Amino acid sequence: MPLIAMVSAKGSPGVSTAALACTLTWPAPTLLAECDPAGGDLLSGYLSKYELPSDRGILPLAGSAVRGTADMDLAGQLIDLDSPRQQRMVLPGISDPAQAASLNPGWARLGEFFSTLPPTVIVDGGRLAAPFPPIPLLASADLVLLVLRPKSIRTISPAIPAINRLRRELPDEDRLGLVLVGDGITTREVVHNLQVPVLMRLAWDTSTAAALCGEGKGRMRGPLMRSAIAGYRSVHTALASRRGAMNSLARRDTDSIPVIR
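Request: output the structure for the sequence above.
Response:
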């Protein structure tokens, strides 16, 4: 199943909220991996009302990935959001940004491991400007989605250096896409300025966003969640298109190999 990473340039455009909204609404088994080097928000936010162990999550799994035992250790690091169905799982992030350096050696192995898992894996990669961003993990992603608020040219301008960095450091730029949060500049104008397709547009829904941060009840069927469901269709259409293009390229490469008789 696909590995989809969400990241941001700078500011607070709502990467964690977007990733959680998709995890809770997408009609497929989904695993949310908090890979933000600045620290995870779920245990202190959405899951704060539960008494959950704080010693499980991405940090011990990164060590397992380096040792080659991640497949055996994964289950013990997860939290089931709709227990016991195991359809919406969470891998909590680090609790202290100082731990990010310890994650750095494991990013590539984690990306390789996530790409082999049966559920859709959504990675919350946080801000690219943070120390030790998970760039090696992003290289394994089927899609890398940059989340931004398109209120004005000023709010989308930080995306330009972030996109340039991703183009330099990822194997190909066909995996890049945008997630727009809220209204403002039209989709056409954003694409014209950034030269990256918009794959999802999420509603600006403060009450539901607050609920996903552990503050208040919100509306779990509100505009944010409905737009996340709509995003599932557009994202998976993009994934299918990309797979088709890759398969076509692979066939052309195979056909071009001379046959030795």
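The radius of gyration is 18 Å.
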